[in-house]
Structure prediction request, 510 residues.
Amino acid sequence: MAQRGGWIAAGLVCVGVGVAAGELVAAVTSPTVSPVSAVGQSVIDGMPSGVKDWAIGLFGTGDKSVFLASMILVIALLAATVGVLEGRRRGFGLAGIGVFGVLGIAAVATRAGVTSMAFLAPVVAAAVAGMLLAWVGRRFLRPAAATLHQPTLDGPTRRSFVRTMGVGAGVAVVAAGASVLIRRAAVVVVDLRARVRLPSPAIAAPPVPAGAVLGVPGVTELITPADAFYRIDTALVVPAVNSGTWQLRVTGRVDREVTLDFAQLLAKPMVEKYVTIGCVSNEVGGDLVGNARWLGWPVRELLALAGVQPGADMVLSRSTDGFTAGTPLAALTDAREAIIAVGMNGGPLPLEHGYPARLIVPGLYGYVSATKWLAELKVTTFAADQGYWSPRGWSALGPIKTASRIDVPRRGDTPGAGTIMAGGVAWAPERGISGVQVQLDDGPWQDAVLAAALNKDTWVQWKAPLAVAAGRHVLAVRAIDGAGAVQTSVPAPPAPDGATGHHTVEFTVG
Prediction:
């Protein structure tokens, strides 16, 4: 084995064991903040908004998995580099590990809600990696005094080195796996979600009306299951929130600060409502949108308890992980029924969707309204405060634009000649949908059949029979909102306030 290859292997294994040890310590002492998650979150926060938009557009809800995989690759490259540096000159690689340890400590310090115990993990990670690399170098990779300048990886020594690296790699994998299991167990045990019994709503959602589901194969379900609901947020690791100690504070320009715990929140008169929410990063025809039955307490009632002072025009909501969103005060106090949600589709909020409580505000994109893992509502002004995305170039208000989507036929489909049934969904929360029209091959716009709506804040299904001959076809769709405004055909990207344009699908009839 070449000496350089030995140092690369040593760097990979020793740093890998160190990182895994740090994650294991974090899982026990600080489940919500670990060295890897803190560094990753800091990188995400520092990314230009264009890079984030590109990642969401390319990978959708898989953006975090891709980012984590990229982080693992970068850590491996840095670990190999550390090994090579240590092989070239004693102490260089150890110094590199020290630098990474300091960066880990600095990243941990930037996280919201960090405790002193969270700093133990990056210290352990750097110490374990450094000590192991120094030991492996002395034991296997540096020339002995009696055989100066002669590699020691020969015969039994080589086999011992390979066995040691194998054991080290196994330890790293086991430690990393244990940290994941411990953290997941901590989430389940600590937040007590499994024991939550949601109250019956004081105002229940009306039953799903007849005709709300058109029964067209391939068209999006009217109610999005929780496990299929899109997830776009800035949390690299799902926060582990203990609902037994969770509190929601109302601060800022109020007559009196109010603090509410989870039991007190559950005791409030709840409202149940179907609401469609969407991500501002959703492209025309994209799937970063979903419709669910939410249960929660109206935000306006909580703000009334606090007593909003004159001059306020915005509420800055804050997540337990530090994310913030600036929501127009009017949107939280008018008749649209913005709620502090505790339930989704009949059960407690899933961990990934904000347990124990989140905001749901009809008519606004999530980046200015749908804060998950809610911890604070600060009554303030747009002049004094900004949410996470506003200084990154996104609009401060974020009303959801009228949109429509073709679900069938899909791009590339090859149906037979004759009559086919096209279908999809359309939405314009706060305004509702009064009509949907389709256009085949630049022909005249024709009315589609519109399903019965749950309410004005949800999407509706539509269908349209199309007579098609053999050949290539292009189908377009547009919606008409409840006020009679026709969805614009002018294409625009998601930034800074939502994509526009007509969704089109190209298909070939055989």
